Amino acid sequence: MTQDDISDLLVRLTAQDRAALRALYTRAAPKLTGILIRMLGERAEAEDALQEVFLRIWQRAATFDPDKGNGMNWICAIARNHALDRLRTRPARRGVTLAPADETLQVADPGMGAEAQTLLRAQMQEVIRCFDELPEDRAAAVRGAYLEGLSYKDLADKFDVPLNTMRTWLRRAIMSLRECLDR
Amino acid sequence: MSKPTSPPPSPENDDLLAAEFVLGLLEGDDWRAARDRAATDGAFAARVQAWEERLAPLNAEFDEAPAPDMLPQIETLLFGKPRRRSSLREWFLGLAVGTVSAVVLLLAVFVTQPPVSPTPPSLVAQVVDETRGLSLSVAYFATTETLDLQLTGPTPEAGQDYELWVIDDSGTPRSLGVLTEDVKQLEAALLAGEVLAISLEPEGGSPEPVPTGPVLGTAVLEAG
């Protein structure tokens, strides 16, 4: 396996390789389950969603371009998108909970090679530095959106500010993040 | 669309919208519009992908969780039911040890077979335009490459027609035909994850290979 073993498996899926699907499930299902539970808040729904995420991965594998992106990022994006699809089409609003910010960002992925770990750690440092440049509450709001699937409205309620204020905060935060990350 | 909450289109605002979409900040019509745009507009999809890569280091904050074994269900949905070789073998083993004549037992096996049930659709989608009260149910059968359609709602004004499109992952629309209540079936090869869209076109359908009129509704084809 190369440093991005998920990319290799995704490429094999396009050749209808069922063994690659099984290997991908073993390798990636725990991470995707973690994403779905955190965003959807319920284990039962997360398990149902996991099935659909794997169907989407199989069906869309041909659109994955290993030259343009990392395989793990690609499948995580599919899982997050599917979770957001479910959150945004839920009939009733769920209660908003925002997990406390971790003291340190974790970089633990046992399936990864040392070289990939080093690269990921460097990218993480970059993101941490850019988040550190944001006002603390805005950094927490951006993380809440990404990790918990909170919308502008959820965040406005959570931080007890008017919706338009939250929108203005986050649009500024997005622009400074981009400026910092692309620096 | 409800009240506009997104700034007017410009490269800068498109990029902001892509970030809002990736972060998951949007809701309702804004969310649906951005999702459909990401599926149909290549330039916007590229902005979305750039933001996914920028923010991907945050994925390390999602802890792994014990995963249920959903592989059998996933494989059944993707590849169909596994063949029942083993249970057939059990039948023949039963025959060998049975005292009743093999012929009688075999007959019993055939007689007690349940009737063949209708094939379930491979994919389904429901395209809805709430403002018009228009709804199209689509059931797609991969083995015959046919779509069963059921359209309900108002007929378009004189001189206009509804047209059905499929949009693949590259964002290219392809016409499946003009829709009327009389059209109950169309032939096409479709894939899960592709987007169906209904547009309002001049009578007889779009004069161009792409929709020229407003898109009334979209839906993603999903496993039935």
Question: Mean of residue pLDDT of chain B?
Answer: 80
CATH class of the largest domain in chain B: Mainly Beta
Broad shape of chain A: globular
Question: Can you tell me the CATH topology of the largest domain in chain B?
Answer: Immunoglobulin-like
Corresponding CATH architecture of the largest domain in chain A: Orthogonal Bundle
Quaternary status of these chains?
heterodimer
Point out poorly predicted stretches of chain A: 95-110
Give the SSE string of chain A: HHHHHHHH
DSSP, total strands of chain A? 0
The largest pleated sheet of chain B is described as: 5 strands, antiparallel
**How many DSSP E strands of chain B?**
9
End-to-end separation of chain A: 32 Å
Description:
The complex is a heterodimer of chains A (183) and B (224). Chain A is mainly α and 183 residues long. Chain A has two domains: 5-88, RNA polymerase sigma factor, region 2, helix turn helix motif (Rna Polymerase Sigma Factor, Chain: A), CATH 1.10.1740.10; 114-181, Arc Repressor Mutant, subunit A (Orthogonal Bundle), CATH 1.10.10. Helices cover 69% and strands 0% of the residues of chain A. The radius of gyration of chain A is 18 Å and the shape is globular. Mean pLDDT of chain A is 84; it is low at 95-110. With 224 residues, chain B is α+β, with helices and mostly antiparallel strands. Chain B has three domains: 11-58, no CATH class; 86-117, no CATH class; 123-223, Sandwich (Immunoglobulin-like). Helix content of chain B is 33%, strand content 25%. Chain B contains six helices and nine strands, in the order ααααααβββββββββ. In chain B, the strands form two sheets. Chain B has a five-stranded antiparallel β-sheet, with no helix packed on it. The two termini of chain B are 29 Å apart. Residues 89-94 of chain B have low confidence and may be disordered.
